[in-house]
Design the sequence.
């Protein structure tokens, strides 16, 4: 599938060279393979590569920053001034508000925040969700979204602030629930084999998701929990409702439980309708 390049981007019919900073990391490798498969020339830099991140910033029209969030500001401050104004910079971080602001401050080029909502174990981008947060410029944004969609990605355009606010629920709270579940099961000496033998399908799905933690980086998950400015409010809200429900169950207040359950059913109906429309 030949990528389509915006007429104002790239010299003639030549494909832009893609540089991936952090190209030996798991997501860096994934996107290097993606771009190569799409026919783009790709350069990578990492800690021990011959090419440096500065080399990529100067040489590549498309600069992909696949960096840990802890080192992101320092690296962007170093690279931003080197990126030509007619080039394109995007990141792959799980948060967008501070990352997009950092790129806008340090670079003159067009900027988009990118959050792949999938992991490096996926074989293809087809059907996978990708969040895009516009920063500066429209030409490269149009090219980038078009390329992702052309290869089957499902893109959502969202502001950096709204992205991080949503991720506090969809990522931070989700991880929080799973960690609490895993810790509670472990500390209470529950036999995993017995749990799986008696698990209904919905709980087995939760166990399958929990098992994926084995392959994940705890440093990344700690950053997702602690760097999102909206996480604390979300966890406090969740804890309040959890405590309220615990009290309802303790009191055996059947009518209050049913009322709460029916309210959640209404949300469930809305979600089913949204999925049906797709």
Sequence:
């Amino acid at each position: 599938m030949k990528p389509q390049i915006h007429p104002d981007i790239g010299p003639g019919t030549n494909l832009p060279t893609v540089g991936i900073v952090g190209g030996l990391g798991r997501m860096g490798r994934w996107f290097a393979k993606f771009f190569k498969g799409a026919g783009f020339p790709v350069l990578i830099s990492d800690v021990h590569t011959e090419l440096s991140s500065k080399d990529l910033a100067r040489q590549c029209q498309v600069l992909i920053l696949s960096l840990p969030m802890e080192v992101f500001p320092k690296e962007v401050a170093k690279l931003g001034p080197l990126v030509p104004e007619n080039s394109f910079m995007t990141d792959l971080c799980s948060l967008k508000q501070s990352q997009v602001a950092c790129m806008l401050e340090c670079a003159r080029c067009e900027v988009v925040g990118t959050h792949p909502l999938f992991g490096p174990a996926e074989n293809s981008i087809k059907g996978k969700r990708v969040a895009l947060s516009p920063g500066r410029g429209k030409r490269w944004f149009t090219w980038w979204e078009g390329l992702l969609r052309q290869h089957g990605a499902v893109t959502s355009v969202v502001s950096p602030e709204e992205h991080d606010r949503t991720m506090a629920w969809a990522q931070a709270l989700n991880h929080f629930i799973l960690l609490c579940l895993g810790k509670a099961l472990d500390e209470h000496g529950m036999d995993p084999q017995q749990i799986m033998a008696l698990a209904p399908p919905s709980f087995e799905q939760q166990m399958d998701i929990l098992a994926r933690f084995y392959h994940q980086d705890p440093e990344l998950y700690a950053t997702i929990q602690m760097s999102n400015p909206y996480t604390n409010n979300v966890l406090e809200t969740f804890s309040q409702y959890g405590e309220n429900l615990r009290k309802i169950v303790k009191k055996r207040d059947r009518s209050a439980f049913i009322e709460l359950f029916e309210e959640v059913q209404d949300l469930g109906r809305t979600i089913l309708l949204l999925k049906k429309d797709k």
